[in-house]
Amino acid sequence: MSAASRVNLRGMRAIYLFEMARFRRTLWQSLATPVITTALYFVVFGSAIGGRIGTIDGVSYAAFIVPGLIMLTVFTESLSNAAFGIYMPKFNGTSYELLSAPISPLETVLAFVGAAATKSVILGLVILATAATFVPLELQHPVWMFCYLVLVALAFSLAGFIIGLMAEGFEALQFVPMLVITPLSFLGGAFYSIRMLPETFQAVSLLNPIVYVISGFRWSFYGSGDVSIGVSMAVLGTFLVASFGFVWWVFRSGYRLKS
Q1: DSSP state of 195
Q2: Rounded CA separation 197/56 (Å)
Q3: Could you report the per-residue pLDDT of 82-120, keeping only the tens digit for each?
Q4: Who contacts 137 (Cβ-Cβ below 8 Å, separation ≥6)?
Q5: Which of 96, 173, 177, 226 has the fewest beta carbons under 10 Å from its own?
Q6: How far apart are CA 112 and CA 18, in angstroms?
Q7: Contacts of 172 (CB under 8 A, 6+ apart)
Q8: Over 135-159, what HEC string results?
Q9: Residues with Cβ < 8 Å from 61, sequence gap 6 or more?
């Protein structure tokens, strides 16, 4: 029997389609609301304020904030979707069925993470298309942009699983996205280049891991960022591997799933 035939593709497909069906049932909340919110950012920051700022690194301010706005939405939606996806089986008691099903921990993680990341990638591309209607965009590395978007969605979906596993209530599901990730994103160069800050604050900003993620994504648009693309990839890769290792261990051991 080949390795491919031993993979429970039917089980993975069932979990993936179940999660994507939930996305379709809540399309207004999952897709329309983030797009409308991002469009308002373009109107306020891009048009009203951007005209007074001018350009940053030769790019208009309205175009400069596009990668940051996409990342801001992908961060929060990946965390929220994945956290909610794994919390609900715990909440309604069906996590025992998941653990007893003939599907390996790795397959379970891939199915859940794949669905959560797919939702975020779709949302990111829709916001990109929306942004293109407001400002002329330059995309120097489109293939890299898409690959980077997928990696970010995967990494933060995995982190969302950790939040969902640790959460003891619905309020806790929003705690990290709203009180940790969103502030770090605003302070991570989503709306400005950290090179515009005084040297002391530049050094402090480099302690924020979101800076590296946003900088790498902005590089795919304009060929430049606050830090080198190699460093950005190293930070993102480390975060991705660490999150995957923790989630896989949780599913394998049943930690927090059996309680």
Answers
A1: G
A2: 13
A3: 888 778 777 777 767 777 777 787 788 888 888 889 999
A4: 63, 66, 128, 131, 221
A5: 96
A6: 9
A7: 163, 166
A8: CCCCCCCHHHHHHHHHHHHHHHHHH
A9: 45, 46, 49, 50, 51, 53, 54, 55
